[in-house]
From TrEMBL:
Species this chain originates from: Selenomonas ruminis
GO cellular component: outer membrane
Entries under InterPro entries matching the protein: 3D_dom, 3D_YorM, Peptidoglycan-bd-like, PGBD-like_sf, PGBDSf, Resuscitation_pf_RpfB
Stored Pfam families: 3D (PF06725), PG_binding_1 (PF01471)
Highest taxon of the lineage: Bacteria
Annotated keywords: Signal
Protein name: Peptidoglycan-binding protein LysM
GO molecular function, one term: hydrolase activity, hydrolyzing O-glycosyl compounds
Domain 3D stretches: 117-175
UniProt GO BP: peptidoglycan turnover
Gene3D superfamilies: PGBD-like superfamily/PGBD
PANTHER family: CELL WALL-BINDING PROTEIN YOCH, RESUSCITATION-PROMOTING FACTOR RPFB
Domain Peptidoglycan binding-like: 13-68
SUPFAM superfamilies, per the entry: PGBD-like (SSF47090)
Amino acid sequence: MAASILVKEGSRGHAVETVQNLLIEQGYLTGAADGVCGPQTVEAIKKFQEANGLEVDGICGDGTYSALSGGASYEPPAIESYSGNGRTVYVSATAYSSQDPGLSAYTASGTKVRRGVIAVDPNTIPLGTRVFIPGYGEAVAEDIGGFRGNHIDIAFDTHGEAIIFGRQNLEIYILD
């Protein structure tokens, strides 16, 4: 079953890399795909949208992706699995975004709240620690949550994504 796609400034991961490769193939983007949607990728998306009579907003959703891919739907990779030597930790996980009411757009470390960030109890998982979260990918502990112990708060780009994630008990892997 095909999945929806949303690539916008600040997005990271497989979807971004897929869009970047298509933009490179069609001459709208130069360089190598790095999986990070920055200003150059946004500008390339806008150029593609303008050239193809689409709404020019610099965001690659399902419509733009369909035009970019010649009518194909986005197919995400299988849920990521981890096969390294990290230490396993069982956590209660919730989700948040900078769009959530009352939350800052910045982490306790001073970085922007974005996908790839988690909030932690620094006495349990120190700030700066890299982790692997099955179904989400790698993340870095850059924020502090208002909780203690084996709980993490996983950052998403939108409030809707955070709501969909909800609360889950997970096995995560400490990478360093």
